[in-house]
Amino acid sequence: MKIQPVKLFFPFFLILIFINFSGCSERRAEELYETGQFEELQTNYTHARQLYAEIIEKYPDSPAAAKSSQRLAELNKGKDLSNINNNPNYSGDQLMPKGNYGKYEALDHPAILSSLFHPRRDNLSSSPLKNGKEFNIPVEENVVIHGRMHCFKMTAPTILFFHGNGEIVSDYNDIGPIYTKLGINFLVVDYRGYGKSTGDPTVTGMMADAHKIFEFVRNWLKKNDYKGPLFIMGRSLGSASALELAVNYQEQINGLIIESGFAHAIPLLQLLGVDTEALGISEDKGLNNIDKIKSFNKPVLIIHAEFDQIIPFSDGEALFKACPALDKRLLKIPGADHNTIFVRGLRSYMDAVKQFIISD
């Protein structure tokens, strides 16, 4: 009489285990899928693919497996990535820049270019830098971008720096050594037509060049055994180049610094005297800085002058609030404007950079 309930209970118990196991499997598959979605937002496409493949292999009957197959097909569309899982050298670099960005022809109107860019040549016949490297980075046929690296050591972190629209590489000859004294390699690059670079500046050229500069720098660092982390930094106009790289190569960089960066292009262009309405230029045809930072999850430092008369402090706040990174900081430089930020805030500026870059 006592055995009967046991017999009844035993198969029922097995059913409960099966149901529970099945439910756990589906939940686990869904969790992996959600993680894959998050990795895509971070542009960590290699890991996303691995997660989707794991779901298909381990949980083939789950709803998440069907969704994973669809995502894999979408990610691989237009690219021959059939051997990706068997290629140990694949790092994600072969991926194209994000589809939402990359078309800037509307900003190449002469009225915009004359307001946005203020190139000048570097006529200084300076002697070679002590502890420095000079670069001529090919970006197009007969077009090179000049860069200069202030070197500390090969194991130190490196900053790839994009300057403002009225500056050139040699303007940072005195600032570069400040970075090296902090234990940081500081590599500053020009735009077309600036300093010792060739060509003529355009927005399309500037943004396309950022990708080629980044590829060149990463290859050079690797070839020359520079093993420290790599950070991207942009000041003012340079924030556009920096964010273009941040949104496309999140896996390959360790963090992002934006100094005096703009969140929205239209107010800046209007301040510079561009009649954006007459030219039919809207924010969706701009540089999309605010949208790009929304998908960047690595550490971020934003530095902005309290009384910036060109790009207001509210732009820095907007970029900071839009960034989803857990590790982020906004530094206000009191009493400074766009062109006095470094002079007035030198100590707090460099202390923040050192704390951000140099890990204990």
Describe this protein's structure:
The radius of gyration is 25 Å and the shape is globular. It has an eight-stranded mixed sheet, sandwiched between helices. The protein has about 350 residues and is an alpha/beta fold. The termini are far apart. A hairpin with a 2-residue loop joins strand 1 and strand 2. Mean pLDDT is about 85; it is low at about 1-20 and about 80-95. The chain has helices at about 5-40, 45-60, 65-75, 110-115, 175-180, 205-225, 240-250, 265-270, 275-280, 290-295, 315-320, 340-345, 345-355; strands at about 130-140, 145-150, 160, 185-190, 230-235, 255-260, 300-305, 330-335.
Please state the structural category. alpha/beta
CATH topology term of the largest domain: Rossmann fold
Main sheet, how many strands, which sense, barrel? Answer: 8 strands, mixed
Number of strands: 8
Order of helices and strands: HHHHEEEHEHEHEHHHEHEHH
What would you call the shape? globular
> In angstroms, what separates the terminal alpha carbons?
70 Å
Residues in helices, as a percent range: 40-55%
Number of helices: 13
Oligomer: single chain
Task: Please identify which CATH superfamily of the largest domain we are dealing with.
Answer: Alpha/Beta hydrolase fold, catalytic domain
Strand content: 5-15%
- Given as residue ranges, the uncertain stretches (5+ residues, pLDDT < 50) are 1-22, 78-97
CATH class of the largest domain: Alpha Beta
State the CATH architecture of the largest domain: 3-Layer(aba) Sandwich
Radius of gyration: 25 Å
Total domain modules: 2
The main sheet orders its strands as: 1-2-4-3-5-6-7-8
* Mean pLDDT figure: 84
